[in-house]
Amino acid sequence: MSGLRGKTDHPPGLSTERNVLKGEFIVKQPGFLQSLTYAWSGLVMTFRTQRNARIHSIVGFLVLAAAAFLRLEWLQLSVLVLTIGAVLAAETINTAVEAIVDLLSPDWHERAKVAKDTSAAAVLIISLTAIIVGLLILGPPLWTQIAGG
């Protein structure tokens, strides 16, 4: 039975074994700090390579600054933070999808295009939703500040 098990390529600190007969995967996970290191590396790579991630971060910061200026309630602020986090998470997932597609399909392929386009569409959907949430939360107090002083 041991001949049916084989190791696959993996990053240092992470070993994966597969039982071919049963189709089971046995994953030896890295330690917590190593997992954080991998996650941080992915985050840094996303912000270094993805212009839209940087734009979303700047807009998110400006929204939070406006929320602080308007002295929004904690619940409103929490909704804004969760919404900003969702946009940034979607952008990061989109980056991962694009990297995987580029790896598996270096040449142009219709299915690769579909994967990339739908992943980008998910970011568009959450971004448009974030704009609506931002307008609903920031709009009324901002309008009161502008109109009534």
User: What is the N-to-C order of secondary-structure elements (H for helix, E for strand)?
Assistant: EEEHHHH
Q: What's the overall geometry?
A: elongated
Number of helices: 4
Give me the Rg, rounded.
21 Å
SSE layout and pairings?
Layout: E1 5-7, E2 15-19, E3 24-28, H1 32-49, H2 51-69, H3 74-104, H4 110-148
Antiparallel strand pairs: 1-2, 2-3
Summarize the structure.
The chain has 149 residues and is mainly alpha-helical. The chain has helices at 32-49, 51-69, 74-104, 110-148; strands spanning 5-7, 15-19, 24-28. The chain has a domain at 51-148: Helix Hairpins.
Task: Explain this structure.
This protein has 149 residues and is mainly alpha-helical. It is 72% helix and 9% strand. The chain is built from four helices and three strands. It has helices at residues 32-49, 51-69, 74-104, 110-148; strands at residues 5-7, 15-19, 24-28. Helix 2 (51-69) runs antiparallel to helix 3 (74-104) and helix 3 packs antiparallel against helix 4 (110-148).
